[in-house]
Specification:
The chain has 280 residues and is an alpha+beta fold. It is built from 5 helices and 10 strands. β6 and β7 form a beta hairpin. The N terminus is likely disordered.
Length: 280
Amino acid sequence: MTSKLSHQSWATIHGLVLAMTLLAAIGARGADSPAKPSKFALPPPSIDPSTGLPLAPVWIDPNWKDPDRVLPEVTYDGLPVGTVADHLRSEFKGAFDILIPGGWQDLNNPDQTIDSQQVTIRMQLKNVTASEVFNAMNLMFEAQNEPYRWELRLNGNRPTARFRFLPQFLQNPSPPPHVLPKTRMVYFVGDLLDDAKTGGMTMERLVKIVSEVYQMSYGDPKGAIQFHKDAQLLVVTGTSDQTVFVQQTLSALRGKAQAAKEKPQPGLMPTARPEEKKNP
């Protein structure tokens, strides 16, 4: 009796081990097998073997089938894209759906938006199918560097034309140029002035010289250089670089005036000091 029970116990254990082994094998096989792709998922982007970069996505699904109708003539003269969509729905008897978003807005820059109501179509075609009409619009968008494209996809089994925005093709506005702050400096120039009757430099002549030198580097000095004759002050309004430039100009004029004072005048001989008498 004991031997029989022992034999049954071993058989039970062996059966459990075999069942667990089969379950583990089935689980491993399921983990190794790839998941079934969704019918709504787009195929992964193809890689260009010559460059190693992703190829441009195909704009039309290979399973798209054009309606059995050819339009003898299509003329759109600046019609809104929504009006064009309504016309195509009517011409092809609702054989496909058309999706047009109302607009697009950059989350990081709310001022940068695209409004689908502003998109217009202007083209003339003859003897074209539905896909050829959408392709012609894409060619027009590309030629005009506009950030729109049509895509022909399958929404399940339903053919669908989707109007897409391509923000990467938007031209970002250039940032405004940096404007340097302006300061106002006042310089005393009385030491550079002299009586006009003796041929010295007048206030008007000094301002003329400084203005001409300023114009050589910064253009018209109007509004930048002013003066007060009685107070013998020169007022300069500009950037720090411009005010420093005027200050250097005044320093150069002072150096020139000092050199002129130290230079002996022509025709004048320096007077000799009288000799001192020596005591016998």
